[in-house]
Amino acid sequence: MKRVTGVGGIFFKAKDAPALRAWYKQHLSVDVQSWGGAAFDWTDDEGKPVAGTTAWCINSQESDHFAPSTSSFMVNYRVADLHGLVKALREEGCNVLDKIEESEYGKFAWVVDPEGNKVELWEPPAGQ
């Protein structure tokens, strides 16, 4: 079974999230949206869209989105078979969180790595 197929998103905390979002928007032209981040659509060598997006988001330092990790970042990895991977990780003794979410955005699960970093696993909806 193929496990990780790519990076789906990068999320990090900031002391002053609104100011840091504004800095990225002004100086690096990141199209920061009202939800605090941006979506980078994938393109081919000619700039034509292909299926896929990478999310990027700045969270406030008080955010509990990364809990139980105390890390200041979380990486979201794209996977092809979320339920199969979660099963395999549990069988391998990994610290997989109990909750699996399914929505119009796809399927999500979380595992905590040996250094305490929460890792998000994402199976995008079909065709994305």
Short description:
It is built from two helices and eight strands; from the N terminus they run E-H-E-E-E-H-E-E-E-E. It is α+β, with helices and mostly antiparallel strands. It has a single domain, classed as 2,3-Dihydroxybiphenyl 1,2-Dioxygenase, domain 1 (Roll).
With helices defined by DSSP (H or I, 4 residues minimum), what is the helix count?
A: 2
* Proportion of residues in β-strands: 35-45%
Using only C-alpha atoms, the radius of gyration works out to 16 Å
* Poorly predicted segments: none
Given the helix and strand composition, which structural class is it? alpha+beta
Q: Order of helices and strands, N to C?
A: EHEEEHEEEE
Count the E strands: 8
Major beta sheet summary: 8 strands, mixed
CATH superfamily: 2,3-Dihydroxybiphenyl 1,2-Dioxygenase, domain 1
Q: CATH topology, anyone?
A: 2,3-Dihydroxybiphenyl 1,2-Dioxygenase, domain 1
What's the domain count? 1
Measured between the Cα atoms of the first and last residue, the distance is 19 Å
Q: What is the mean pLDDT?
A: 93
Second rung of CATH, namely the architecture: Roll
The percentage helix is 10-25%
CATH class: Alpha Beta
Note the overall shape: flat
